## 1
Amino acid sequence: MRLPGSLAILALLIFISACGGTADRAGVQLAGAAGFDVEQELPDAKLALPADGVQPWEALDGQGHVLPSGRGSSSITANTIFTPGVELFLSAGDAVPNGEALRLNATSTNDIAYAIYRISLQDQQPGIVSIDANLLGPKSRYYVGVSNYGGVRWEWNGPFSDGRIRLPVLTDGNGNYTSEFGNTFVTVLAEAGNSLDIVGVGVNQYDPADAIKPSSPSGLALTPVNGGIELAWNPVPANDIAGYIVYHSGQPFSNPHAAGVKRVRQLEGAPRHILSGLSARTYIAVSALDFGGNESDPTAVLNALPLAGSPGQLMLATDMVSGKLNQAAGLVASGADLYDWDLDGDGVFELTDDASGSQQAYTGASGVIRPAVRGRDALGEAVALGSVSLLIIGNNRPVASAVADPQSGPAPLSVQFTGTAEDLEDDLSALEFAWDFNGDGIYEDNTDLLQPPATDYIVDGTWNAKFRVTDSEGAWDVDSVAISVGEGLGGWPTAALSASSMRVEKNVPVSFDASASTDAGGGITNYEWDLDGDGIFSEAGNGEAALEGQPLISLWWSEPGSYPVGVRVTDADGHTGTAGLEVAVTGWRITALELPVEPVNDIVLLDVHGSPALFYYDNDTDDLLYVRASNPQGSQWPASTLLSINSYTRGKRSALMVDGRPALGFSGTGAPGLKFIHASDETGGSWGSPTTIDPTSGSTFYVDALQVAGNPAFAYRDSANAKLRYIRAADATASSWDTPVDVDTQDIPGNFCSMAIVNGNPAISYNLFNGQDLAYVRATDAAGSSWGTRVIITTTSNTGYYTTLAVVQGAPAIGYQLNTGADLMFVRANDADGQSWADPLPVATASLAGYSANMLIHNGIPHIFHHDNTTAGMMLSVADGPLGTGWAEPFLVDGDPDVGDGVCVIHLGGRLAIAYYDNPNSDIRFAIQY
């Protein structure tokens, strides 16, 4: 099937968030890119690297590498090896030509569609991979995989909702991304619910001879827009620029590679970008990257505060994805009041303040043209950027067509293939032909014929034979014909699985239905179930075997969690198909660690690369210990690691990740001072020796950790000298520390101190021992080197216990206990800096609440975990709205007697996770919400 290029209509709804974005996702690193640590999702598809070979029309050099053929189009530079979307190597799913582009449609529930491209690099390696694609719909996205032959795997990147991306592959000379024949492979993959036109794939070779870093971009300017910041800069005037790296952080930074500094997940090709999804002041810098992997110095770090309105929206439509030189290409934009147009894609808006929304793209040069539009409202505050990719060609592609007789039958099956070819410029004698009978992408030798000798198929299966026609200028076309071999002639069955509910409470049955599974041949003959996600179906001993043969089953679970359920269907030929779902059982999944020692309630919880980790000390020996769960659910915990003897944890927020490794601030029983210990590896399997970072302090209590302007920092109470102190590392790796700062020295300050970044600067909430008042102080600079005057928020008798500071809707807020009566309270500032405060609000007053209070903002709503001495349970109080002006009745997370003291809370994989003390069993419990 082919889509006529002249009839293809694109409707791309482009939101401002699609032009940037700040969300990082869990997964893998950008392929081979040193310094590009933006995390990615992995596609569900499991693809093996293709087996490479030599095509009949190819020649090898002296090293056995395929000699690259000439290319007729360009995308990034004249040296870019560009492959039009239609010139794929292999594909799966709904992938059909659309002019010079290839359309991927993955619209079914469990469908995927992908195309693999083969690029000959001879003895070189890919430095940059670029994709030009037009997304068909506002929510479509895709993944890009690059063949890593050194690691024997695909390196996946994405998902991307931007159709024009550039990915660094090899930036330091280490790695092998080509096959033994010198070819690299690039896959573009769409999962269910996504559709796009692949206009083309570009590859630029890595240049190891270039060791000179490029010049820095100049003229960086930031413009606040609704929900984001628009960036513009001057392009670097060099021919080897691969693209630009956009760095951003909620805190000032000088080193763009410091912890806490984020970057846009792909290189930006144009000198303009919108960072979207922002609400707070953001610090931004831009650098340039060349094809040798050399990065320029960053620009000066600028900052801006996004506007608060709704983001701009933009719809851009074009009536073609490819065409001839000077062919009319209409562009229609809608959704904004005014439009600025870059009609030739050179990064310069030639036409501004257009109210019509209708223009013609420039098509006077061959190659990829990327016309762009900037839409905005009348005030210039709601802004969105959008663009499309058009491939302009000077030569018409030939048309290939193949038929087979017969197309199905039992093995051995003899098939006669016949091809036809047409070309507007060449006659038949100038065309070359090739056949790939088994559909592996490597064409057979001696098949330059329209009708090759009959081919015998002796193995059952479906074989997608291909017929390729190439014209005198190297343009080619492929047609496929499916050959079904076997008794059933139905190929492989398609498994379909549905559930009566995807989210249920404990012990509520869920019905699973696989009866909609289909097979075009002899029908489905068996159903097998996998209930534990191990990939083994009808396993004996766990209930799976008893369900074999049943298309309808019912399951329920007694514990909260995410539970995978899979089905495998088998047809009359023995072919199988699988499908799976994951059901969430809501509630808190509670796990007792069953520690062999007796811990105390000074517990510290930390997210260490997706799995929970705990710091605690042994009440009998004063040994400081660390343990990280064996899985992200925290349901299995190995043996603990000894960190230090005669040492205490001194604050439930005293740990943090430093340079990608866990670290802790703590105190010792013998030597005074604040101590610091840092893991030697990413998971905490081994540790360095503790160092004393503030030897001048006495016994330290209530240690609170935070990343401040890219470096780790601690606030703590110096009990011996009756001071609230603050110390920050001199660098992002904590190899040295600045001089401690006395933040407050009056009224014995620092009990229950809690730290947060408030309007760009660190701030601390704490209790004053003299008078038992609730106090707050904010630094006057982003690093915390100097501090302002403290604010006494409330002097109500015996207040300010267990303070927990967070930013709530742009202003600091504190959860705390009013110890008289044991009431849990909440108070929020009237301004962004915390100089004026509203009246405190009661959160939980019906019982002895608020012990070990710990607040976290979850899904925009304040949540406070606390221990209740009346119920003796683990409690959660949730605000009625984002401002915390009203609170629901406390929720009992764990109702076992005398649990919940020392509770600490983190976000873990987007879920709430807590650890707390189990007093009757002298143990620690971990709980995660589903």
## 2
Amino acid sequence: MFLFFFEKIRGTKINSDRLCIAGKDWKSVRPIKKWGIHREMVIARHGRQWKRLWTGCGAGGAPARQLWLTVIQRGVNGAQQWSTAVKRGRGNLQLTTTVIPSPHIPIDQSNDKMVANGKEVDHFSDEEDSDLEIDYTDIEERFRPKFQDTFDNLIVVEGAPIVDESKRGRLIKAIISTFAKKDLKISESKIEMPLDPNNQSKGYLFIELNSPQDADRAVRNLHDYPFDKKHRFTVIKFTEVERFAHVAENFVKPVLEEYKPRSHLKSWLADPQGRDQMIIYQGDDVKVAWHGRNGAPDVAHKRTKWTDAYCAWSPDGTMLATIHNQGVALWGGANFDRIHRLYHPKVKLIDFSPMENYLVTWSDQPIELPTDPQAPQIFSEDDEGNSIAVWDVVTGKLLRTFPVLTPSSEEEGGARIKFQWPMFKWSGDDRYLARVTPGQAISVYETPGMGLLDKKSIKIEGVVDFEWCPLSENERDAILEARNLLPSASFDEPSSDSKPKKNAGERSNMLAFWTPEVANQPARVSLMNIPSRDTLRSKNLFNVHDAKIHWQSNGDYVCVKVDRHTKTKKTTYCNLELFRVRDKSFPVDVIEIKDTVTAFAWEPKGNRFILITSNDPNLSQGPTPGTTIKTNIHFFGMDVKKGDFRLFKTYDGKTCNSVHWSPKGRHVVTATLGSSSKCDLEFWDTDLDESDKDLGSGISLLSSVEHYGMTELEWDPSGRYLASIGSMWLSSLECGYTIWDFKGELMHKVTLERFKQLLWRPRPRSLLSKETQRKIRKNLREYSKQFEEEDQLEASNVSAELVAHRRRLLDEWDSWRRHSKQELATEASRAGKLSAAQKAADPADSEQIEEWIEEVIEETETML
């Protein structure tokens, strides 16, 4: 099939008189005026093929910015080819070809010529004033230029400085620069700035952007944007002007949604039996269950596909967080109504602040601005490419996003960047969050503004890691009282003497950090005050291989576990650097451990800690199947009389590798996790029959049990029960969970397929004053009698239900037996047989047998 194609025609100029095209074989060129628009008709010949070319131009002969060209072409099989050329700019035509059959132009197949209105096309001449009566409306409608009839790419910017004509150029350049900062490119020709009769600008201007999407971005990123100290932009789309211009004169009060009060977020604390709750995640089902006295769960709430990944409680148990592909959902109340939806696509990890005011989310995929206009418009241009987001839990608003530090093989100061979570660490009062740039600095940000403290990071050469000092109960109470979130006295006995002190909530935070050996400088552990950045205490260390910082829960002590190596670097040993933070000058106790320390744990709210050490040669090879690593357990504590830490007791020949203190202290569990051959649980009491002479005499092993396939342990908030869990996420050989009491006695055990997660619901701090708590402990025996009666009543209720169930089963059996006997007798009578009862009806054939049964009613012994 013949294809007629202009690749490029240069030097083309079109007007109402003539068409000048460099080429040959053009039959005729004649002007035609139709519908008030000047057109040029061109008949071209290429061999035996004839073409008619229509070129449109602007009215009055002005050159058109866009024009169309139609080619009527005779094909080999009698088809017609229609071609369109669009002028992309003056002097540049490009022609494309499509095949469309048309009934408007007849074709003479006999002589292979194109005819129109009964005449051959070849017979037309330049002088002939004959017009072809051919209907081209469908073609012209199809190829008619489409002009932009929308104003979606126009915006109105109000709040610009008012300047005269002399400063107009400078202002426009400044506006173009401001838009460029938001990655919006505009030119001066696309800015219209109206002027008043005095040649003064009116404070607003119109800007044409490249696309409606750019206009949306401009409104999103530049509305309420500070242009300078005195001027702030107000940006709206041009299409919104009409809506604002037709605002009704009379105010119409908007229809407000009916207020629906939420259920109390701490309603579970009002349970009459004082039970704790837990999350049980199995398969696609998530259950919130009460934990009864017998250990069996009582399901209170259940949902299918409640989460796409996992669940997490807030630190005080107020809210439940579920992870989804679109972000994080927060739930609370008796019915677990949704509180907020935090939009962060592909979120993987979350972290609550200690006082539940903020939430940090992380996604392995950088933030991208959504192209779907219906998607939540949470992020701005500045957030694009970041992976960490910080949210206000109360309002659900995004506070700020951060990028993830790019890992590299080696950073400044010899520090390696490793992925660790949480990436940001919170101070105990939620005032600050900080993260470390290994080898360089610690960046501290203030809440809620999320600005950098003093607008600069804390430069620390070689810094590796840091930890915030936790708050004590008294400090936490003082902060809550200052914020009017906690009563300053007991509910039972309000007193005017227990008013919070002035500025009680104000407290200087503290963090501990360590730096390795760099060049000739020794390694160093330091305590720093925040926000003053003063170094409170520092200690130099030598031959340091690694260090870990462990704060006691009340912030009274901090232990820096330092792994050191000999000068030959062939063997390693450990030092414990114990800082007494509450004492003057921050004294340091040093305990040297010759073996490798594999686990360390402080007693909550106490001054004791446990070490697990090992000198097994297989330890350096890591966990291998069938290999059991021998370990030793060491109990340390504070000797009040001598004022230093000392070793209380050591137990050798163990296999445990993890320590789990009860939240209330005193009781502790050591366990063997991650081993395919050992799964031991050892329950210890550290205060059993303790004497003043021997401080370690109260440490006793209560019981030793096993749970095959366990992968993790969870204490309930009361410290009375422990859950050993076998999760499919950690490739457990036996998925399920077991509930133990604090003595190691089995309460409840269940094996579940596709079991994933068990989480106890945390409890907030008690609202009772310490004096009220002391009174309760003093009268605990009276309360224990009441509890025993409730336990007996509950047990009797269970027994009554069991007896009623058994009686019902027995009645059903008796009824079935009587019915079966009647059916058997009926069938026997039909067969003419006598039943056993009928055969025994004759007294002569029967025999009566009497049997005496003796029973001792009472037995009395008399001493002679």
